[in-house]
Amino acid sequence: MKIRTFFCPILPSNTFKSVFMTTVWIFSLSQILFAGEPEKNPGQPEPRLSGEVFRITTKTIGSQNFYDHWSQGMVVLESGAIIDDHLLIYNGYIDELIFQHPLTYETVVADKNFIREFRLLNPGREDIFINIRNSRWYASASLGSYYRVLLEGNVSLLVYQKVKKAGEVAEYTSEGPQIHTKVEPDPAYFIFLNDGRSFFINRFNRRTFFQAFPEYKEELRKQFRQHHLRIRNEQDLIEAVKIIEKVVF
């Protein structure tokens, strides 16, 4: 910060009074202007994440995490307070949000009871996860706590980014055989409607949606054909749900 020194000459009393009043007016105006600047958590103490220090107990072959690197993140607490100065990782094997403590640099598992949602921010991409147990969809949820939001509207598409155990691998070392757990992604997709209904998408195909919405089967079939949509991956699934929202609502 640069320190500037100002020379102040001795002025006559009437001139001094005029300068003094002008200075007071400028100071008052600056206070009004700066008072209107919005705050992230107005009128509240700086919020902090709580949790327990994370200890890796299971070494695996394959990644347990949604990303294998720390992401700049934003966390919204149940109170509505926002925290945006932490590095985050989502571990799908244990379904936990992990953050790096900004002062001690310890790896900490966040207490999910206080979390409404969090966002992983990476160049050109933002991934939004909501705590399903602290949301309007809780009654319809059957797996886990954290769900990634792909679409939100009258028809919402969420995915539970779970990582499952896929087997064990033996490794022979100088200290004897070592058994390692092999893991792999096993995402589970759900559709939530604003009337409270929900559907688990067990297969990526058109028939899944025809069975979920039998009263709209022919119109959905028509729309899927017009859009040349074959549901084979996540992006196709997103497009299918957009069509469903137009047809059903």
How would you portray this structure in words?
The protein has four helices and 14 strands. With 249 residues, the chain is an alpha+beta fold. It has an eleven-stranded antiparallel sheet, with helices on one face. The protein is globular. The model is unreliable at 1-39 (pLDDT under 50).
Task: Briefly say what this structure is.
With 249 residues, this protein is of the alpha+beta class. Helices cover 22% and strands 36% of the residues.
Low-confidence stretches: 1-39
Residue share in helix: 10-25%
Mean pLDDT: 83
Strands in their spatial order, largest beta sheet: 1-6-5-4-3-7-8-9-10-13-14
The value of Rg in angstroms is 27 Å
Secondary structure: number of strands: 14
Tell me the distance between the termini.
58 Å
- Largest sheet, strands/sense/barrel: 11 strands, antiparallel
Give the helix/strand class: alpha+beta
- Please indicate the percent range of residues in DSSP E strands (runs of 2 or more): 35-45%
